[in-house]
Automatic annotation (TrEMBL):
Recorded GO CC terms: axon; dendrite; neuronal cell body; plasma membrane
Chief place where the protein resides: membrane
Membrane-spanning parts: 12-31, 51-69, 109-128, 134-154, 246-268, 288-308, 369-389
Protein's membrane topology: Multi-pass membrane protein
Cross-referenced InterPro entries: 7TM_chemorcpt (IPR013604)
Domain of life: Eukaryota
Sorted UniProt keywords: Cell membrane, Membrane, Receptor, Transducer, Transmembrane, Transmembrane helix
Known role: Gustatory receptor which mediates acceptance or avoidance behavior, depending on its substrates.
Species of the source: Ceratitis capitata (Mediterranean fruit fly)
Record family assignment: Belongs to the insect chemoreceptor superfamily. Gustatory receptor (GR) family.
UniProt GO BP: chemosensory behavior; male courtship behavior; sensory perception of taste; signal transduction
Name by which UniProt lists this protein: Gustatory receptor
């Protein structure tokens, strides 16, 4: 029986547990919040508080649904990773201990649950009414905050873990190519190579002399393992690129929803800070810390996704420069024609399979996204403030 490098069964049990918590616990927590009066004078703050409750629940529900709808793709991804590991084991002579990796995954899962506790406390304090103090055993904490937040963190952890795993595969390929380029000493002298350029094509087809001497034949047999290793690396690179496609397909909706919600939270919580400064929002002083902390959490959620995607993309791009150096020195080989052609195919594979890391095709997950979100949040914040000051002369919404 095959052992998967990622715990699919554990993931399914956790998702099932969260799913049963949602229908009962969420509506119980909503009923508890509705039974208490909101005495904040700012209508936007009251509206955004309820919007945050339902948005968090929707995010958790979407995470659970997309996980089960993409379960087949996750199994394919696990099988592909095992195939890649097997091929890497034959080339780089490295062993992958899945039992140790699973133990590390359990420890990381425990750390993930510990992170969910303070985040749930911060969110619960933000959305609870003013007159109610924070209660760790409340339904708001466990079902409205902790259940969806722990699910989202677990899914986020899974995405980062898989992307880091694939990034490591790219780095192993690049290291092998660099070592392969340094350690390869061609036995035969340089031969003249004629290059034929095709019309309407950027490729170059090198042609070498076809006279086969005994020394040339011996050199070709000596260099044949180099060609074989290069072909294997090409196959592994293609498989890892397929793995990146699967990861982006599985987590594309998660990246889109999480980034959109984080953008909204940054905007409305920044407005709450403005209302506090302008004395239109009456809250306790200690809640200011939690509002700022919640804004920083949303920024970190976006930054982590951008960081891991950029690191993986950079690892893929590094292969291009390594291949270019190998193409420059490949003409010294006795079997330069075959070696050069494989390098050319490898280079075309890297260029064709260059991935655009995006959130379900809506926006790219790069560092420009962070500046775009901050600029957009500032713009919408100014619009909301102008709307508030223009339509409410005394800077207050009518109290109910």
């Amino acid at each position: 029986m095959k052992q998967w490098p990622v715990g699919i069964s554990t993931e399914g049990n956790i998702y099932s547990l969260h799913f049963f918590q949602f229908p009962v616990g969420f509506f119980s927590g909503v009923y508890q919040l509705q039974s208490a009066d909101y005495k904040r004078g700012d209508g936007i703050s009251r509206l955004t508080g309820w919007a945050q409750v339902y948005t968090l629940f929707t995010l958790g529900l979407v995470a659970w649904i997309t996980s089960w709808t993409h379960m087949e793709e996750q199994c394919r991804l696990c099988a592909l990773i095992m195939k890649i590991d097997q091929r890497l084991r034959d080339i780089v002579e490295i062993d992958f201990d899945y039992k140790t990796l699973r133990k590390q995954l359990i420890w990381q899962l425990g750390l993930e649950l510990l992170i969910a506790f303070p985040l749930s406390m911060v969110n619960c304090i933000i959305i609870q009414p003013d007159e109610k103090s924070f209660m760790p055993m409340s339904t708001c904490f466990w079902f409205i905050c902790f259940a969806p937040i722990s699910l989202l963190i677990f899914k986020q952890f899974q995405f980062c873990h898989l992307m880091r795993l694939l990034k490591t595969k790219f780095e192993l390929i690049n290291n092998k190519l660099c070592k392969f380029n340094r350690d390869t000493h061609f036995a035969c002298g340089r031969r003249r190579i004629m290059t034929v350029r095709k019309m309407n094509s950027v490729s170059e087809v090198p042609l070498t002399a076809t006279i086969a001497t005994s020394a040339a034949v011996e050199a070709e047999l000596t260099e044949e393992p180099n060609v074989d290793i290069l072909q294997k690396l090409l196959t592994i690179y293609s498989n890892v690129s397929d793995g990146v496609d699967l990861v982006l397909s599985i987590f594309g909706c998660h990246l889109l929803c999480l980034t959109a919600v984080s953008f909204g939270v940054i905007t409305v919580q920044s407005y709450n800070l403005f209302s506090l400064v302008s004395h239109t929002l009456k809250i306790h002083v200690y809640e200011i810390v939690f509002i700022v902390a919640w804004i920083l959490v949303q920024i970190m959620a976006i930054a982590v996704n951008v960081f891991i995607c950029s690191r993986t993309s950079r690892a893929m791009e590094n292969t291009v420069s390594v291949l270019h150096k190998m193409r420059v020195s490949s003409n010294e080989a006795s079997n330069a024609s075959l070696f050069y052609q494989i390098l050319q195919i490898f280079s075309m594979e890297v260029m064709q399979r260059k991935r655009n890391f995006n959130a379900a095709g809506f926006f790219d997950m790069d560092y420009k996204l962070i500046t775009s979100i901050l600029a957009s949040a500032t713009t919408y914040l100014v619009i909301i403030i102008q709307f508030h000051l223009t339509n409410i002369p005394d800077c207050h919404f009518p109290k109910e």
